[in-house]
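Replying to the earlier thread about multi-chain prediction with a worked example.

Input:
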Amino acid sequence: MMNRWRGLKALVVDAVDHGSRAVERIQKETASVPFDILEQVPPLAAPAKVVRFFHDAGVSGVHVTIRLVTRLTGRALDVALDVLEHSQATPEPPVPTEPAPPPHPASPPVPP
Amino acid sequence: MDAPRAPRYLRSMGDVLEQVIGALNGVLGDYLARTGNGLSTRMALVHERELLPLERGALSRAHPNAAPRLVVLVHGLMSTEIVWRMGDFEDYGARLARDLGYTPFYVRYNSGLHISENGEALDALLERLVDAYPVPVEEITLLGHSMGGLVVRSAAHAAACRPDPPRRWLSLAKRAVYIGTPHLGAPLERFGNVLTWTLANLPSPYTRLIADIGNLRSVGIKDLRYANLRREDWEGADADALLQNRRHPVPLLPHIRHHLVAATLVGDPRLALFFGDALVPLASAAGQAKPHHRSAVLPQGQVRIVPGLAHLTLAHDPEVYAMVRSFCEEAASV
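Result:
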């Protein structure tokens, strides 16, 4: 069961990670349309490049943070699940130790 | 002493959870398996909600009166063995045990993997079952619902193609019943393929994103596009390419009696041909192959059509059970 909880956690982390990357890509692609046009106009090209740089850096920063926080939360959940699993594990009763049996004497040959 | 049974509400919750995980495996099973996710299902036999180890002792405990005739039930896409359950908590396996003395075994597997991968796994599982079974097996009946029927066919093909030593289970398999099985593929998946391909090729990041999400569906679902049964059908191919039928015919093994059960929801024969049981068209479930389908010839004399049933209902309907039972009786009397 704990394996399935870990699986669910991994799936949610993966979903957020992939979702965040996809949204980041879309935001940058969508913003690139006006930036591409502005960068064709000579007086605006230089400031447009600067704005695009800060825009893309801002978008990436937000999504990197989202992914980082998600991964850290995932790690914390891993630790919590480990602790839970450890606390649920029942200690095994000690196995009584018995003295080793004496070695068998060589059996005499059985007469035919 | 038997372990105490869980209360009924807990068992129901457990069933719901297994069904959700079964559905998740159907949608994303290949991803779950590839990433080693704990939610990925490994092919196994299930007995009374628990995984049944393929060991003689475990099989003897599960079936103290093990009969030499086995029936193996294989569920379909996004499903689990619970799909076989009828209203009275019986199922086709339990009824065949009661009526004809079969010992039933229920397979659970990750239906998001390639059909050929599940076929190979079922081939290995059946061989281990025959090896570990407490009494000598005399015959095996295979029952596949929907994708399960394709997995059964793929397993038989994998077993037949194996070099020495030959699989014992294959010679013991006497009949196979394919219930609502899309032998010629599923138009719903072909529609999904056309839709995602179109969205992916539009010049918009938004439609591409939707296409990407759609293309996350498992390779098991994508195999249903043309009912791919062999590795050669998908190896080296782009699974998201537009309507590429790379299917290689898989002939039915002649020593097995093959029975096909199809359902129709509507009365009109032309509509029934296309809509069938709402998921699988009649032509596909009945295996009415034409040369362009690149499919093996399926025995049209062994097709039975049930009117007024939906795809999932086929797995737990008294009328369908009566057919399955008659197939088994008919084969036993030959």
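The two ends of chain A are 60 Å apart (CA to CA).

Feel free to reuse this layout for your own posts.
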